[in-house]
Amino acid sequence: xxxxxxxxxxxxxxxxxxxxxxxxxxxxxxxxxxxxxxxxxxxxxxxxxxxxxxxxxxxxxxxxxxxxxxxxxxxxxxxxxxxxxxxxxxxxxxxxxxxxxxxxxxxxxxxxxxxxxxxxxxxxxxxxxxxxxxxxxxxxxxxxxxxxxxxxxxxxxxxxxxxxxxxxxxxxxxxxxxxxxxxxxxxxxxxxxxxxxxxxxxxxxxxxxxxxxxxxxxxxxxxxxxxxxxxxxxxxxxxxxxxxxxxxxxxxxxxxxxxxxxxxxxxxxxxxxxxxxxxxxxxxxxxxxxxxxxxxxxxxxxxxxxxxxxxxxxxxxxxxxxxxxxxxxxxxxxxxxxxxxxxxxxxxxxxxxxxxxxxxxxxxxxxxxxxxxxxxxxxxxxxxxxxxxxxxxxxxxxxxxxxxxxxxxxxxxxxxxxxxxxxxxxxxxxxxxx
Length: 434
Description:
434 residues, alpha/beta, Helicase, Ruva Protein, domain 3, six-stranded mixed beta sheet, 21 helices, globular
């Protein structure tokens, strides 16, 4: 690296510290020489005077290359709301992949392809195997394998949920630890568990942690990965997912928004929708294959829309209510979410008391809001400001618990469409006596 130009510019900056263009050029030189820490310090001062989208993008690039992915996402989420720049989307996609959020990254990648069908990125292509042909969305064996992961989290990374962990322990973990004992009683290892409850309360997180707890393979697929506009492709996609799981036992298949896939057949007019449900039921039963060693976890915010056939023994024979975290769990979640962040005198017990009815996602959102405020303060002098208890409490005042709306709807189903007692847990949580 030839430092003569950089040294000259730094000398000039000493005499003209408010020269934003000069400081920006210095930051770009540091970026070109992979010195992202120095570039960051200059860009923060640039943004204080000239907060353009491109300058914010450069700061996000510095954060990304220093593995500060949370800060990277905060900036990029703001940028992509106002413009569909491929550069912004590409960096956001890379940040999501680094954090293991491949399903969200795939959505961003498809967004890039919608903007520019000729876009090429070998890293993204090898990970997602997305094609712009008429077969988009159709799984092959290779595609399904790309969704096969080994989770790095377990129950220690999940705040609260003691009852749910116990249920999963009995249904999943114990059978794997005592295979011979279960087989002696003719009990299969695996089966289905349906998790339901308000959005953002950790259904996906507990599913991933379950796979990590038993060191199993994990396949996380969304409805968009399965459903396809071409007749017959959705059924093929489902079959490939289950076949991949059967070849990589023990394996946990997690399907989010399963109500869209397992909707009540009486409510479906189109034959195509019914054939997908029938295919799903067939895969769950393992009619032509052995599902021993496969756990299917489904998550839904609306269990009342799911076909009753899915609740038959041998399919989703355990229905578990995932409630908003209680006070102890909220404190645990705050401790997990604040780990490795700049903090000072954080009283998580107070935060847990004041965040009643908050979901895990609401807690994360409150911390993100507090971080955004701290970023604005830090841009002025380039010094990171630590989070304090009052910062997060102030963030509470800018939001409402997202769980309230869900319980307004769920309460009606629990009171008036609960013949089998399926929703008794909702009534118990709301302290309503039927």
